Amino acid sequence: MYDLYLDVTDEIRSALSKRVPVVALESTIIAHGMPYPQNVETALHTESIIRQAGGIPATIAILKGKIKVGLSADDIEYLGKKGLAVIKASRRDVPVLLAGREDGATTVSATMIGASMAGISVFVTGGIGGVHRGAESTMDISADLQELAHTRMAVVCAGPKSILDIGRTLEYLETMGIPVIGYQTNDLPAFYSRSSGFPVDYRADKPEDIAKIIKAQQACDYQSGLLVVNPIPERDASGLFDFEQCVQDAILECTRLGIHGKRITPFLLDKIKELSGGESLKANICLVYNNAVLGADIAKALCRL
Ligand code: PSU
Ligand code: MN
Fold first, then answer.
1. Residue 288 near residue 29, CB atoms below 8 Å
2. Is the predicted pLDDT of residue 70 greater than 90, yes or no?
3. Catalytic residue chosen out of the listed positions 26, 47, 147, 279
4. Which ligand 1 atom is the nearest neighbour of the CA of 284?
5. pLDDT given at position 241
6. Can you tell me the distance from the alpha carbon of 27 to that of 71, in angstroms, rounded to the nearest whole number?
7. Which ligand 1 atom sits nearest the alpha carbon of residue 164?
8. What's the DSSP call for residue 35?
9. Which of 25, 26, 29, 260 should be mutated for ligand 1, with most atoms under 8 A from CB?
10. What is the Cα–Cα distance from 109 to 150, expressed in whole angstroms?
């Protein structure tokens, strides 16, 4: 039944059946999260980091009405070049795009769906979506959080994106029963910064410890996700740069222009890049690479258990 809509490469299929570690990667970060050509370079290099670590990368997108698990370099180039013209696909968009044989760059939520359909357990991204600042009036809460509530997947990220209301995002995660595990940290990182000032629920110092939690979730048939938060490396967290001021200015500009819905996050990321003279893009790329290393290590540890 899935076969009508799901296309998993032979390499990934065979890896999963032989318990070779597989790591899922998303495609909204390619089409909407970064400019061309850095988006394509980052996506390809993230894949090679996973391979060097002994894993198989599974970048996911919707192409011609199929959830494609495992993109070719040409697919990545296509999505990266087309950029914002590709539909940004979250859970609600998926069935419509499949039925209409369309393309979609999958967000964290839609990528979790595809990865889970394929039988993958670990997924790496940059920063997850969450509760936006001002959500008490706009009700803008990323579908990523709801997906974590009911799709079993270990999502490795550098924390919620700095553009968000971090405190409310944590509250939401708690309400939805999503464990938040700090990797070698007691503080919740917030994307560009190593600490948000909020503590995490749990800390794990080794990938094996995270793999054991995933195994427990699987054994108990838990139908919800796990959030692994991995701080941006010290050398890359540009202490010299005041990203918070850029974030606030970008949000003001976003409100002034009346941008809303799913266009907000890509707009803010792009504006912050401009306001920071490119510093935020550098940080974003570095934290993705750092997450790829951890994701591969967790997937390897999981295969060994
Ligand atoms: N991580 C990044 N850059 C991104 C994203 C994550 O480093 O662009 C994307 C993910 O696809 C995530 C989305 O699901 O941003 C959140 O969008 P929204 O706030 O509209 O839910
Ligand atoms: Mn939103």
1. yes
2. yes
3. 26
4. 7
5. 73
6. 10
7. 19
8. -
9. 29
10. 10
Q: Do 89 and 107 form a contact (C-beta atoms < 8 A)?
A: yes
Q: Which tokens in the block code for residue 5?
A: 């809509």
Length of the chain counted residue by residue: 305
User: 287 CA to middle of ligand 2, Å?
Assistant: 22
Report the amino acid identity of residue 107: T
> Which of 125, 164, 191 is the pocket-test mutation for ligand 1 (most atoms within 8 Å of CB)?
125
Distance CA 142, CA 110 (A): 12
Q: How many CB atoms lie within 10 A of CB 240?
A: 6
Could you read off the pLDDT of 122-167 as tens digits, one per residue?
999 999 999 999 999 999 999 999 999 999 999 999 999 889 999 9
Q: Look at residues 203, 211, 32, 8 and name the one whose alpha carbon lies nearest to residue 117.
A: 8
Distance from the alpha carbon of residue 5 to the mean position of ligand 2, in angstroms: 26
90 is written with which tokens? 């979250």
pLDDT digits (tens, 9 = 90+) for 220-263: 999 999 999 999 998 776 555 778 899 999 999 999 999 999 99
β-bridge mates for residue 6, sequence order: 67
Residue 182 in contact with residue 188, Cβ under 8 Å? Answer: yes
Instruction: Measure the CA–CA gap between 88 and 13, rounded to whole angstroms.
Output: 26
161 in catalytic set: yes
pTM: 0.97
